Automatic annotation (TrEMBL):
Its main location: mitochondrion. Core subunit of the mitochondrial membrane respiratory chain NADH dehydrogenase (Complex I) which catalyzes electron transfer from NADH through the respiratory chain, using ubiquinone as an electron acceptor. Essential for the catalytic activity and assembly of complex I. This is NADH-ubiquinone oxidoreductase chain 4. It is found in: Mitochondrion membrane. Residues 111-397 form the NADH:quinone oxidoreductase/Mrp antiporter transmembrane domain. Residues 4-106 form the NADH:ubiquinone oxidoreductase chain 4 N-terminal domain. It catalyses: a ubiquinone + NADH + 5 H(+)(in) = a ubiquinol + NAD(+) + 4 H(+)(out). The chain crosses the membrane at residues 20-46, 58-77, 89-107, 113-134, 146-165, 192-214, 226-249, 255-275, 282-301, 307-327, 348-367, 379-409. It comes from Glossobalanus marginatus.
Amino acid sequence: MLSLSLATLLSSIATPQRKLWNHLIALSSILALFSLTLLISLNNFWHHLAFSFAADPLSTPLIILSIWLLPLTLLASRRHLQQEPPSRQRIYCILLTFLVFTLILTFSTLDTILFYIAFETTIIPTLIIITRWGYQPERLQAGTYFLFYTLMGSLPLLIALLNLYNTLSSASIPLTVLLTQINDMPISTLNLWWLASIIAFLTKLPIYGLHLWLPKAHVEAPIAGSMILAAILLKLGGYGLIRITLIFSYPTSNLATPFMIICIWGALATSLICIRQTDMKALIAYSSVGHMSLVAAGILSQTSWGLHGSLILMIAHGLVSSALFCLANLSYERTHTRTLTLNRGLKLLMPLSTAWWLIMAAANLGLPPLPNLFGELFIISSLIAWTPITLLSTGLMVVFSAIYSLYLFQASQHSSHPQFLKKLNPSFSIEHLNLLLHTAPLLLLTIKPELICFS
């Protein structure tokens, strides 16, 4: 899988310009189909991909999600870049394929130091995509926020991993899990390592309080940047948090309590913030903060239901939020505004896209039998088992999540359309294909949910 993704990266550099898009979309589509073969060995604890690289039931769904979204981001970006010079189109494609390659490295590495290097490398192509191909001059400020938050949060992680390697004389992730359980280490040392390690992942998720970079990055990023950010880069934080809590699972039950309280409160607060948003992309971005805060709370609960629910919600949210950004871009390319009040009444002008809006809004609010519902139910059950007091806040969060999802659908599709929207270009077949390829995995996971459950 790593060699195929590297071949895709090299082809984006070497392919002639007139064949670049068609060749790259075809090659990434083949890679996406081939990645499904990883599901065959899903029940194995570790399945080796190459030397020092392997996949397990935790990383396999995230690797497949990363590869699956590469052709979809290329499909969504092609019209956006038609007016760009050929050299910039090639750089854009190289950055996207390089970003996916580093994501596969991050999810599949067995070495903690290499994990950190790949984890930080994802910042570079993302930052360039946001600051170069963003829509407005504020993209530079968004890039600064993104760089400052992620780098400052990652510094304690580097110190913790180096200290861990110096103490255990091993950088292997499976071996580190065993050594921390066998060695008789002080609880205070393990707690300090755990605390230093999770800050970077909580920033990348991000949880409420460390989230200020995300709405800015989402609003200013081009369509591919928003899709990758929402669908995969946020899941890096969840993946790292699960790995770290599995290493330091037993000494952190009391230390995790304040973080869980912040996450539960943040999920409710961002649901309330979403109701007040007027920008379509900002609303979707804040909803991601709420869902990821809930994921972090489920992981920190250190229960089987919390971990399973977090992984299910991460995969389902990755597909749904990416599709919502595609729909927001579909409207923006025709109306040239993201303001909800200026995008109303689109069901009369683009009725087929309204059907996609309805499906994705229903998935975002957790309508049964879609996997978003089961992920939220697993997490909420684990939180109620932790303390019944969380029933009130999580219940309100679910209610307000339904309200802002329906508000997003109603505000953009219903009512009479403004006068300047009398004539719009129809939605294209390639856009419907893109949304169909987002929906198909959701339906597959609804029928066969064990594909994203790990032991």
